[in-house]
Design brief:
The protein is about 0% helix and about 50% strand. The protein has about 240 residues and is mainly β.
């Protein structure tokens, strides 16, 4: 019996770098677009800076902004013609050789996961075998800050892929985390279990007659519920 947690997210680079402005001025031109591959040292943009209090052209100078590494342009934050201050984020560059997704979990789900757990990742619009991955990081801010300060989305995990086959930055994907695998357990489908005032029970078919039997249940998935007591292997349950 396998217990899993399903999450959704978007593919992004595991390593992302923000490129900041080198000083005050007006952004004059970009030489790249979102999605472009760039090399270390490649010119990304030009900034026109002006000396304070002086308005003639002789006080102006152009400063080029270059990429510090190879990568892929993920986003452009500042528009051409916009005035900026020093160290203001201009654009972001990611390294596409290692991809991951970030996914939000409920607090109950987060308590079940551990770094290194196996994950299957698939894109709904791309049929085929899922990409294998594992949980590389898990964060629970509710464990640090008082309850109520942060929303449920602040509990999240990072899933890193073993390989990047058939996945691209920005792809919407679904991931299934394998949190528990138990052999030799009794289980029933959810529709076979009844409930009376909070007490689970089943109908047993005994000598062509229906009898009720109270049961105790354990962990469950969408299609299986573990039976801890109240049933023996081989007994016939009426759905």
């Amino acid at each position: 019996m396998i217990e899993t947690i399903g999450v959704r997210g978007a593919v992004s680079p595991a390593r992302e770098t923000l490129i900041n402005t080198p000083g005050e001025g007006v952004l004059q031109k970009y030489f790249v677009h979102v999605g472009d591959h760039v090399d270390a040292g490649q010119v990304l943009a030009v900034l026109k800076s002006e000396a304070a209090g002086v308005q003639d052209a002789r006080s102006s100078q152009f400063r080029i902004i270059v990429s510090p590494r190879d990568g892929l342009v993920l986003s452009i934050i500042i528009s051409i013609g916009q005035r900026v201050i020093a160290n203001q984020p201009l654009l972001s560059i990611g390294e596409p050789d290692q991809l991951e997704i970030r996914a939000a979990l409920s607090l109950d789900e987060l308590e079940k996961v551990q770094i290194g757990m196996e994950v299957d990742v698939s894109a709904p619009d791309q049929p085929g075998s899922p990409t294998k991955g594992s949980i590389s990081y898990a964060a629970c801010f509710f464990c640090i800050y008082p309850a109520g300060l942060l929303k449920a989305e602040d509990q999240f995990i990072w899933i890193r892929f073993d390989n990047n086959a058939d996945l691209s930055i920005g792809d919407a994907v679904e991931a299934r985390i394998y949190v528990k695998h138990t052999d030799d357990v009794l289980w029933l489908p959810p529709e076979a279990i009844q409930n009376l005032s909070g007490a689970p029970f089943v109908y047993l078919l005994v000598n062509n007659h229906l009898e009720t039997s109270l049961i105790a249940t354990g962990f469950q998935t969408d299609s299986q519920i573990e039976i801890i007591s109240g049933l023996d292997e081989g007994q016939r349950v009426f759905k």
